[in-house]
Each structure stands twice: as C-alpha cells, then as structure tokens.
Amino acid sequence: DAGVHSKAWYAATCDRRMAEDALQRSNKDGSFLVRKSSGQDSRQPYTLVVFYNRRVYNIPIRYIESTRQYALGREKSGEERFDSVAEIVENHQRTSLVLIDSQNNTKDSTKLKHVVRVS
Prior knowledge:
Organism: Rhinopomastus cyanomelas (Common scimitarbill)
Radius of gyration: 13 Å
GO biological process, one term: cell surface receptor protein tyrosine kinase signaling pathway
Helix content: 10-25%
Number of domains: 1
Protein name: BLNK protein
Structural class: alpha/beta
Low-confidence stretches: none
Shape: globular
Number of helices: 2
CATH class: Alpha Beta
Pfam families: SH2 (PF00017)
Keywords: SH2 domain
Distance between the termini: 24 Å
Largest sheet: 6 strands, mixed
CATH superfamily: SH2 domain
Strand content: 25-35%
CATH topology: SHC Adaptor Protein
C-alpha cells in the first residue's frame, strides 16, 4: 500500500482537470495534492499535482516493481526512491522539489506547502 488513503492531500476521486482547477483556485505557490493517474498503468499509479508561479505541474509517481518503491518523474540514474507515496510528500515538504517545464524548458523549485482538498 502506498500509504495514501488516509492522507488529507490524497484526492481519490479526482481527475486531472478537477485537480488543476482546485490548485488554480488555491493560487498559492506550493499548493499540492496527489491523485490517481489517468492511465490504468500499475507502473505509474499516482500523479503529484503542484501549483507554482501560476502554473500547474502534473508529476508522475512511478512504482518500481523490483524494489517495491516509488519515484517521481521519468526514470533517471541516481534518482531518489521512497518506500511510500507518503514519504515522497513528507520529503518534499522539507526539501524543494524541482519543477521542469518541458514546453518552455525552464526549471523552478518549491516545497510542498499547502494541501488542497478537492470538493
């Protein structure tokens, strides 16, 4: 179990559009939630949705079968791996998360600061 179901930041029934709308309404840098990924792919079960600088970032959370761990974004060497999705969130509440905008080729970073609940 990824340790998400009892968490305030987990939006179980939320799709991408609802998540993006909720974060834009919050309009606070570092607002975030975790939702189920749109695709039915066991290797990418969740998406971390973060608001920063008037933009919404959808960051895939990958499940690594071989180690039973989770990691953010595309696979890369030396990536941080976590035993649960909750650990990813707790880690990035303390340390900044790098946000990559692939369209504009820019990098930002923010901590996860404000839990957004989807009504």
